Automatic annotation (TrEMBL):
Pfam families: DHFR_1 (PF00186). This is Dihydrofolate reductase. The keyword Oxidoreductase applies. Its EC number is 1.5.1.3. CDD domains: DHFR. The keyword Zinc does not apply. Pathway: Cofactor biosynthesis; tetrahydrofolate biosynthesis; 5,6,7,8-tetrahydrofolate from 7,8-dihydrofolate: step 1/1. It comes from Lactiplantibacillus fabifermentans DSM 21115. Belongs to the dihydrofolate reductase family. Key enzyme in folate metabolism. Catalyzes an essential reaction for de novo glycine and purine synthesis, and for DNA precursor synthesis. Coiled coil: none annotated. GO terms for biological process: dihydrofolate metabolic process; folic acid metabolic process; one-carbon metabolic process; tetrahydrofolate biosynthetic process. GO terms for molecular function: dihydrofolate reductase activity; NADP binding. Keywords: NADP, One-carbon metabolism, Oxidoreductase.
């Protein structure tokens, strides 16, 4: 199973200069809870923004180049390698964690979407590809808790295909 997980603003913005446009620790916490101990797949640009692999997850980086990656990080040279991984273990959840280029490539075969929507607008340069939500069924929506460290209104949404 392939799940996409991301946070966006009201306009679908997801990135700015290789980083997230906001600081929202509650979203990072949820991201960690969901992805811990799973395979995570990301684009080369997103990985470059992290600088090091995310701990306790099997980090995989998509790139068409031959990358030299830190120990424990695997490269996927094409999206077909992701499909093969998924086919080999169809009951295992693989989290695709961005960015925009990779989301676009994976979306047609994704089974699940974990979206955080921040009820605000930010400046940036990278947007989520368009998703036709008539193909998706919302199974859970929870309001995030706004506080001093998380100074926006935000919601967590969980969709399955169908
Ligand atoms: N808000 C969020 O939840 C969230 C999540 C993740 C990322 N982001 C943000 O999104 C931005 C990065 O997104 P992006 O779209 O610019 O880049 P990206 O998707 O992270 O990475 C793009 C790179 O991945 C490789 N790639 C993409 N598709 C491929 C394919 N089909 N086969 C093989 N390799 C492939 C290519 O690397 P090579 O050029 O090396 O071949 C490509 O240049 C950053 O600002 C980041 O912070 C936001």
């Amino acid at each position: 199973m392939i799940a996409l997980i991301w946070a966006q603003d009201q306009n679908g913005l997801i990135g700015n200069a290789g980083q997230l446009p906001w600081h929202l620790p509650a979203d990072l916490k949820r991201f960690k809870q969901l992805t811990l101990d799973h395979k995570i797949v990301m684009g080369h640009t997103t990985f470059a923004g992290f600088k090091k692999p995310l701990p306790h997850r099997e980090n995989m980086v998509l790139s068409r180049q031959d990358l030299t990656l830190p120990a424990g990080v695997e490269q996927l040279h094409s999206i077909d390698e992701l499909w093969a991984l998924d086919a080999a273990r169809p009951n295992e959840m693989i989290f695709v964690i961005g960015g925009s280029q990779v989301f676009e490539a994976v979306l047609p075969k994704a089974d699940r979407l974990y979206r955080t929507i921040i009820d605000d607008t930010f400046s940036g340069d990278t947007w989520m590809p368009t998703i036709d939500y008539t193909n998706w069924h919302l199974v859970d929506r929870q309001a995030g808790v706004t506080d001093v460290k998380n100074p926006y209104r935000f919601q967590f949404e969980d969709y399955v295909r169908g």
